[in-house]
Amino acid sequence: MEARSIRFRLTAWYAIVLAAALALFGGLIWLSLRQRLVGEVDEELQRGASRFEAYVRTESLEYSGKHLVGELAEFCQALPSSTHLELRGSKGFAFRYPVSGTPVGGLMRTTERSFRIGEEDFRLTLGTSSHEIDHTLDLLKILLLTLIPAVILIACLGGAWLSRRALRPVDEITVAARHIGIENLSERLPAPGTGDEIQRLTEVWNTMLDRLESAVKTLSQFAADASHELRTPLAVIRTSAELALRRAREPEAYRDSLSEVAEEAERMTQLVEDLLFLARSDARNSAMPMTPFDLRDAVRDAVAEVRDLARAKDVELRLSLPAEEVASHGNRAATRRLYLVLLDNALKYSHPGGRVNVALTGSAHEITVTVEDFGIGISPEDLPHIFQRFYRADKARTSSGDGHGGHGLGLSLAETLAQVHGARIAVKSVEGEGSVFSVVYTR
Ligand code: ADP
Fold first, then answer.
1. Does the beta carbon of 354 sit less than 6 angstroms from any atom of ligand 1?
2. What is the pTM of this model?
3. Helices (H) then strands (E): counts for the chain
4. How far is the CA of 331 from the centre of ligand 1 (A)?
5. Where exactly does CATH 1.10.287.130 map onto the chain?
6. I need a surface site. Which of 128, 147, 274, 377 has the fewest CB within 10 A?
């Protein structure tokens, strides 16, 4: 057993507690037995003293001096063997039994009494050796001192065995857990089926593995999608460059090719930035510095940034903000980015000559920012998926539109950003009529 294992500590604690309890128990037994034995001896001495006193009274009527001593010695023979006795009279009478024994005062238990017969005062001392008591108590002590360690030893062995049995599933789980890695995340720990704490622990571990597995799946899907998305612009760049280099051309033709390359590079930059942003917010949501700011400012910034785009697309941008400050806590740049995504989409999917309404409203419980467009809308089939990474409704339509085909990352980014700020995004959309995206902050 390792010194730091639960089994060792359990057994050690068990042994300590048991030893203390048994020591207390043994000590109490010893003490109470001693008290009891001493009490019995004392009572016996008292009775003996009374009987002897009575005997002296009757015999002294008939005898005196030597004769009395003889009678008394006879009486004493009937006393228990270890009894010692002394009787002294005020007029010089002295009797001692046994004649050549230890003086009564050196014995362990003694009793004394005084009485008067006629003109003479008598003093009677009765004693008995504690030898028998000591013997009994010593026996008990030896018994306890050998039995208690034996009991503790047996209990420890039993306890160690029990705790090994109880903890064996833990070892099994440890072994199984050691084998689970990123390459076999679908494996699960063996549940002992005992319905106890260990089974619950295993189940919790297994649900954690479920979550990890799906997170890893999402991540690798994300990586695969990202590489796939990057391949297209890279291919365009390569073919443009290769075509341009195939033979000598006019400067105009080179310029066309180069601007195509630049445009694709720009798309790639945007994509890579979005990917980085998503990856970073996946990794550590809380790392974004949060400060208090006026939500109106973030919305105003985002709207200002898309003004030119709106003009170019001939879409009217209407902004309605409350007059008083809307205090908010979060990352202002991230909030601006969130509204840029929504505004960008609203403009992207609006018809020329259309309109986009942006409004900030607040109630006692919620602050809501809505971005409303009257463009192509979203079909009910697509609606549940638009927040997924790389999802694009009707890809042909999106990319053939005005060359502004996105990567399907915008809304997923927006949702992540909203979550970081404790907000959620709600969508209402009717195909062919337009969409409303609302970001709802609960106060
Ligand atoms: P994208 O870069 O393709 O716009 P998003 O994640 O921002 O990616 O959006 C996902 C899909 O949701 C879009 O491809 C588009 O089909 C749909 N969508 C998002 N916003 C709107 C909108 N305002 N009107 C219509 N469709 C929208």
1. no
2. 0.55
3. 9, 11
4. 24
5. 197-282
6. 147
